[in-house]
């Protein structure tokens, strides 16, 4: 499970809504410090809390967890990549997914 990527996605979406960590925490019924830890990947949120966060931020759980999947919509990660290349490719794909989601939201 890639908790850092999960936290990054939560932070990015929270900022798109112009929510502070405190505002998100209030809506999810957790502490502000807990949201900060989740966004940094230093604490794990329960499934119930992740569902609440996803509902407040109007995203799916698969969007939040996408960085933890070993495969994506374009297929499995090539085995020939070294660890740094894998991370770079995952970041590129995450950026593309985020931009496609934002573009899709704007066109609706």
Structural class: mainly alpha
CATH architecture: Orthogonal Bundle
Q: Could you name the ranges where pLDDT drops below 50 across 5 or more consecutive residues?
A: none
Kindly, what is the distance between the CA atoms of the first and last residues, rounded to a whole number of angstroms? 32 Å
CATH classification, class level: Mainly Alpha
Number of distinct helices: 6
The portion of residues assigned to helices is 55-70%
The CATH topology is given as 434 Repressor (Amino-terminal Domain)
Shape: globular
Domain module count = 1
Extended strand count: 2
Order of helices and strands: HHHHHEEH
The biggest beta sheet reads:
2 strands, antiparallel
Structural summary, described in words:
67% of the residues lie in helices and 4% in strands. It is globular, with a radius of gyration of 14 Å. Helix 1 (3-16) packs across helix 3 (32-40) and helix 2 (21-28) crosses helix 3. By secondary structure, the protein is mostly helical. It has six helices and two strands, in the order H-H-H-H-H-E-E-H. The protein has a single domain, classed as lambda repressor-like DNA-binding domains (434 Repressor (Amino-terminal Domain), Orthogonal Bundle). The chain has a two-stranded antiparallel sheet with strand order 1-2.
């Amino acid at each position: 499970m890639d908790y850092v990527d999960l936290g990054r996605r939560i932070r990015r979406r929270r900022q798109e809504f112009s929510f502070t960590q405190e505002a998100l925490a209030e809506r999810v019924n957790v502490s502000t410090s807990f949201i900060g830890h989740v966004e940094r990947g230093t604490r794990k949120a329960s499934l119930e809390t992740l569902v609440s966060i996803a509902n407040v931020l109007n995203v799916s759980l698969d969007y939040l967890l996408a960085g933890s999947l070993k495969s994506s919509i374009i297929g499995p990660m090539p085995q020939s990549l070294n660890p740094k290349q894998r991370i770079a490719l995952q970041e590129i794909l995450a950026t593309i997914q985020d931009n496609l989601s934002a573009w899709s939201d704007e066109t609706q």
